[in-house]
């Protein structure tokens, strides 16, 4: 979060380490389709033609969801988050963080508090006339709310 706040960039070694750890954790918890879908989207990202990237990404995500129906929603949301990056609506480190968060928790509902925190941060940024916001802060705050809410209100 400190890197994103200072430089608007997160070093590759940090995001790569988190992704590998999250993938291994998800595999041990039986969520292999989102991991395979994520790897496929990484490979598809290198295709030169956007329409080709999108067609392959949708096809591979649908197949991942078909082969593990219990994780189909996570696979679709991984595709949606990747598509935001594909159209330059969100940064690469933010996409990696959101996908990692979904894969680790195994619960796509974690995106709700993250996007709510992002909306609040976006409103504050627009009032301050900022063009870019460090979305990692929203991801952290939303994830923290998602984890702590059940502990507080049991």
Written overview of the protein:
- By secondary structure, the protein is mainly alpha-helical.
- The chain has one domain.
- The protein is 77% helix and 0% strand.
- It has eight helices and no strands.
- The chain has helices spanning 2-7, 12-28, 32-44, 50-67, 72-86, 92-105, 111-127, 135-152.
- The chain starts with a helix and ends with a helix.
- The mean pLDDT is 87.
What is the structure about, briefly put?
With 154 residues, the chain is mainly alpha-helical. 77% of the residues lie in helices and 0% in strands. It has one domain.
Defining key terms:
154 residues, mainly alpha
Structural class: mainly alpha
| Weakly predicted, low-confidence segments | none
- As a whole number of angstroms, the C-alpha radius of gyration is 16 Å
As for the number of domains, it is 1
């Amino acid at each position: 979060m400190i890197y994103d706040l200072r430089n608007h960039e997160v070093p590759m070694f940090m995001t790569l380490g988190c992704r590998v750890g999250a993938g291994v954790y998800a595999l041990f918890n039986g969520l292999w389709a989102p991991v395979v879908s994520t790897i496929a989207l990484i490979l598809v990202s290198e295709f030169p033609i956007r329409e080709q990237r999108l067609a392959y990404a949708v096809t591979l995500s649908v197949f991942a969801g078909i082969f593990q129906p219990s994780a189909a929603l996570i696979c679709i949301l991984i595709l949606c988050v990747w598509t935001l990056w594909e159209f330059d609506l969100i940064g690469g480190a933010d996409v990696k963080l959101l996908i990692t968060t979904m894969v680790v928790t195994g619960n796509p509902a974690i995106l709700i508090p993250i996007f709510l925190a992002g909306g609040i941060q976006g409103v504050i940024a627009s009032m301050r006339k900022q063009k870019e916001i460090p979305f990692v802060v929203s991801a952290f705050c939303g994830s923290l709310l998602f984890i702590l809410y059940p502990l507080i209100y049991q």
